[in-house]
Fold this sequence. Notes:
By secondary structure, this protein is of the alpha/beta class. Helix content is 21%, strand content 22%.
Amino acid sequence: xxxxxxxxKRDLNDWYVEPVWSVEMLRDRVGFLGxxxxxxxxxxxxxxxxxxxxxxxxxxxYGYPARDFLRDTSTYDNIVMNPPxxxxxxxxxxxxxxxRDRVAALVQLKFLASRRRHxxxxxxxxxxxxxxxxxxxxxxxxxxxxKGEAIRRNGSIDFCWVVWRRGVRLxxxxxxxxxL
Length: 180
């Protein structure tokens, strides 16, 4: 089965907002140690669920500072993010240099199927891939801001959380789990 095209025009900065349930699902399955930071937090779904901090490339008016994460030299306990698709790999690679515990990225399932990203998914600290059995509806942030949560429908794209555990050389292959 192929993907159903979105009814929305593509957002210039790939600002698409994950539903709360998708973040709660990660929180309930992964034992993060320390604080959580989301460097591309948009409306702040991830910081709100985890009680952590956030920033975004653009000040979107939700109280989070504007900061270009790819130039950020801060160190964080954990980074949890729904990165923009076009800069996702660069953001994940940068996050892996900036964290003490874990990096978790919400990505389209097809993000895993790439020769260019093979090295990223071959790292010995790749802990798990958690496939969302329910497709999340991720409307553009501007549309969600204007029209509210009622515009979320059934999602049309498969997503997964990919989790790396920094400083841990995992003996076994990463686990692949399905979140129902």
